[in-house]
């Protein structure tokens, strides 16, 4: 009887030990599995912050790119504005020169009967023409001598030539190269005023001027 009690006690103790050891081993395995499955807190934090940092960097790069594009666009606009301003200035200068050229052609000088010397009141007119020629080195001028209807054709052609030559010499004295001046006489062939009296004759004794672009 006593022996059976001892055996029973040993059996109970043995089962208790096995159960205890089994429980400890299971707990240890579960704990190890949790430790393996659960990532360290610091690693998880870095992995979480990495996409945010990348987005911030990309946003900065995009902002820099937009700023550079805006700067380039501004430079292009400034360049175009300068180009338009330069073109407008050229157009204005061209229009101004064309007006001056028109004035040169519009202003004739007039002579006394059978004379070819430059009258005092027309010297200022020739000076303005000389200034225009100095400012426009690519421009030449043709001086056209004219006469009234009195006299023979031959005489009037010669008189018209003397009148044109007189104006040419005056321009040359003001510094205009002879190579830029042409002369021609039309005699009585191109009257400005049609008539046979003193008023018409006075308008026909003249030098006309034509601007020639070379």
Give a structural overview:
This protein is of the alpha+beta class. It folds into two domains: 39-92; 101-213, 60s Ribosomal Protein L30, Chain: A (2-Layer Sandwich), CATH 3.30.1330.60. 67% of the residues lie in helices and 12% in strands. The chain is built from five helices and four strands, in the order ααβαβαβαβ. It has a four-stranded mixed beta sheet. The longest helix has 66 residues, at 41-106. The chain is rod-shaped. The relative contact order is 0.10. Residues 24-36 have low confidence and may be disordered.
Question: Which descriptors apply to this entry?
Answer:
214 residues; alpha+beta; 60s Ribosomal Protein L30, Chain: A; 2 domains; four-stranded mixed β-sheet; 5 helices; 4 strands; 12% strand; rod-shaped
Q: What order do the helices and strands come in, and which of them pair?
A:
Layout: H1 2-37, H2 41-106, E1 109-110, H3 123-135, E2 139-146, H4 153-173, E3 181-187, H5 198-204, E4 206-213
Short structural summary:
The chain is α+β, with helices and mostly antiparallel strands.
């Amino acid at each position: 009887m006593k022996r059976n009690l001892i055996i029973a006690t040993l059996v109970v103790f043995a089962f208790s030990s096995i159960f205890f050891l089994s429980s400890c081993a299971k707990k240890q395995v579960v704990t190890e599995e949790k430790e393996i499955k659960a990532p360290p807190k610091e690693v998880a934090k870095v992995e979480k912050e990495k996409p945010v940092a990348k987005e911030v960097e990309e946003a900065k790069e995009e902002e820099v790119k937009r700023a550079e594009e805006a700067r380039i666009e501004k430079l292009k606009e400034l360049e175009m504005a300068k180009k338009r301003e330069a073109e407008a200035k050229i157009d204005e200068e061209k229009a101004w020169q064309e007006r001056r050229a028109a004035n040169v052609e519009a202003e004739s000088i007039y002579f006394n009967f059978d004379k070819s010397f430059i009258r005092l009141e027309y010297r200022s007119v020739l000076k303005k023409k000389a200034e225009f020629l100095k400012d426009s080195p690519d421009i030449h001028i043709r001086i056209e001598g004219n006469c009234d209807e009195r006299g023979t054709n031959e005489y009037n052609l010669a008189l018209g030539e003397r009148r044109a030559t007189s104006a040419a010499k005056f321009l040359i004295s003001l510094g205009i190269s002879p190579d830029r001046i042409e002369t021609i006489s039309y005699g009585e062939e191109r009257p400005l005023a049609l008539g046979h009296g003193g008023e018409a004759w006075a308008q026909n004794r003249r030098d006309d001027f034509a601007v020639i672009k070379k």
